[in-house]
Hints:
The complex is a heterodimer. Chain A is mainly alpha-helical. Chain A has one domain (about 1-160): Arc Repressor Mutant, subunit A, CATH 1.10.10. Chain A contains 8 helices and no strands. Chain A has helices spanning about 1-10, 10-30, 40-55, 75-80, 90-110, 115-125, 130-135, 140-160. Chain A is globular and about 50 Å long. By secondary structure, chain B is mostly helical.
Amino acid sequence: MFSLLYRMVRDRALAEDLAQETFVKVLNGLASYRAEFKFSSWIFKIANNAAIDHLRKRDLDTLSIDGSPHATTPDEIAATALQVDGRGEDPLQEVEARELGGAIERAIGRLRPEYRACILLRHVEGHSYEEIARILDLPLGTVKTYIHRARNELRTHLEDRRE
Amino acid sequence: MTASLQHLTADEIEQWAVGLLGASRAIHLAQCADCFAAAERERKFFRDLAQLARLAPAADFADKVMAQVRIPAPSGGFERR
């Protein structure tokens, strides 16, 4: 859930605030939880709403992985930058993985928020299309369309990087 | 055109990439180089996305949350932790 928020708003401190807000709402609002809703989907729904509300208030649609646009000092930039893990087994693989991971993070950051939420919920968090539709309050067909378009945009961004 | 001759749709390629494509359509995939190449590209793309770093909040995150949670008090009402 924190990964989703962080990638949606691209600001660690802000993502922590929104994650706190989410869990406080969840824990204080357990009585309003409906059992027909998967519990994790309910949490993601609250988290995504918090992120979307924030993005609507502030123009944070297209950001860099190099830190919050609001960071002004090197310390703030370092504190708000997305950390991209290398997963290779040797140094070269690790560098390549970091480069690819960074390129994917940048490409995701360039997606519009609705597409970004769909692609993160599907491919990073592993939710089904039906769960994503419930989390985002969107028709199933819309979710499929958004994910299809988001993938195409990601591929285009990643191909641009290779050229 | 029979099912085994029809190229895979985008949905079917995704099903294959996550291991859910039915056997009858998998036969086509085994015989069609174009579909197989497209499916392999999609599988790699999904794998790259799934391997993005898992991000975690600061260590004191849970304490900060619990400080704001209302705990039912034995005397009724709520108290903060």
